[in-house]
Amino acid sequence: MSMASPIDPTMQGVVWTKTLQETVRDYPRLSGEEVADLVVIGGGYSGLNTAIHAAKNGLRVVVLEAGRVGNGAAGRNGGYNVPQFPGGITPSVVEASVGRRKGLALADLVLHGADAVFRQIEAFQIKCSAVQNGWMQPAHSDASMQRVRKVHDEWKALGAKVEWHSPADVADLLGAQGYLGGWSNAQGGTVNPYSLSVGLARAAEQSGVRIFENSAVDGFEETAQGVIVRCGSSHVSARSAVFATNAYTGDFLPAVQKSVIPVYLYHVATKPLSEALRQKILKTQLCFTDLRKSGGFGRLDSDGRLISGGAVFDFGNKVAYGEEHARGRMKMLFPQLTDDDIQLESYWEGYCAVTDSYLPHILRLGRNVFSIGGFSTRGVNLAQNLGRLMGEVMAGKRELDDVPVNVYDHRNDIALWSIKARAARYVFPYYRLKDRLGMT
C-alpha cells in the first residue's frame, strides 16, 4: 500500500481556515545547498517545536516541509488539547510499557503538557482561539464506566487535580445526553490547530529557523561530517537530522512509515449554532472525548460551530457515509438539535499516526539521525512537548534517554503493516457495531 502522496497543501474544506487569525506565510522551496547544525523534516507540531527549541539553544536549524506548514495532521485535527493518554490508557499501563522511570516522567509530561502548550501560545503570542476551560472524559456504557473511573482514580493517586462528575453534572456541563458519569481536568481545552501551526512557524522563523515549503525529502545519507538530506537535486548538509513526518512519511523511508499505522480520519463542522443553543450545549466551552470506537467527542469553534467526525470508511461515497454518521452522533448526544441546526458547512480528512501501544516513540535511523512520532490522537499536547524535549536533546541540553518514550536503535515495524494500514480504511462499520452492542 503506497502512502507516498497523501499531502494536500490546499487545506480545502478544513474549517480552521474560516477562523484563522494568524497570517499564512509563503516559505521558499529548497534550492541548491543549505548548511545547518540540525535539519528537521516535517512542518507540523513536533517538527516546529523541535526546531524552535533547538534554535533557542543555539543551533542553526532548517525545516523542510513537503507541502505547506501545518497541512498535515497538525492543521487538520480537532484541536483538542488533552491532559490524558489516548482513550482509556492509564499511567500504570504506560509504566508497564516504558518502565517506571520513564512512565512517571511521561505521565507528568502528559498531565502538565496541556497547560504548557497554552503557556507557550501566550509566550509566542499565537492567535489560535485558545480556550482553556477544561476537558472531560465521560462514560457512555457500563464497560467504559469501569475504565474511565480507573483512569480518574490513577490520576488522583498521582496528585492530579481531577474532578469526578455525576450523570447530572455531565449532562449540565456538556448538554449531552446518555452519559453515566465522567471526570475532567481543568488544564485541558481547545485551539484552532491550523492557526497554531502557522503561529509556531512564525515563532520558529523569529528564532532564526529557516523554513522551506514544497520541499519533499526523497532520501538521506550519513557521512563522516554529518548527514545530507536530499530533496531532488537540492540538499541540506547538517550535523544531525530529525524526521517528524508521522503518518505523512511516504514510501522513501519505510523504517519510519511502517512504525505507525496511518489512520484515515475525517471531521465535519456545522454552521454556527444560535446563542440560545450555545447556552445549552457546551455552555462553558468545555470539550470532551469519550471511549467510543466510532467517535464520541464535542467542541465548539470560536464561531460556535459544533465539530464531530470519526474514521473514514473508504468505500463507496465516503463523504456521504461520514456525514450521515456525524449527524446521527450529534443527534444522539444533543437531542436538542434539529435537522436545521445540523447543517454541515465543512468536511475534511487527514491522517493520524497510531502505534501498537498508542504511545509515541523515537527511532534511531543512524548515528545522528532520528525520528519521533506516533502521537495517536494526542498531538496537540504530546507532539509539541516531546518536540520541545527533542530540540533540547539535539542542542545537547539533555540526554536522549531523558525523553520519556521508548527509543529503538533498530527498525520497529508494526507486524502485518500493509494489511493493518489498509484495514484501517474499512473498519469503521465494525467500530459502530461494537459501540451499539455496548462492547466499548
UniProtKB/TrEMBL annotation:
<dbReference type="InterPro" id="IPR036188">
    <property type="entry name" value="FAD/NAD-bd_sf"/>
</dbReference>
<dbReference type="Pfam" id="PF01266">
    <property type="entry name" value="DAO"/>
</dbReference>
<keyword id="KW-0560">Oxidoreductase</keyword>
<protein>
    <submittedName>
        <fullName>FAD-dependent oxidoreductase</fullName>
    </submittedName>
</protein>
<keyword id="KW-0614">Plasmid</keyword>
<dbReference type="InterPro" id="IPR006076">
    <property type="entry name" value="FAD-dep_OxRdtase"/>
</dbReference>
<feature type="domain" description="FAD dependent oxidoreductase">
    <location>
        <begin position="37"/>
        <end position="392"/>
    </location>
</feature>
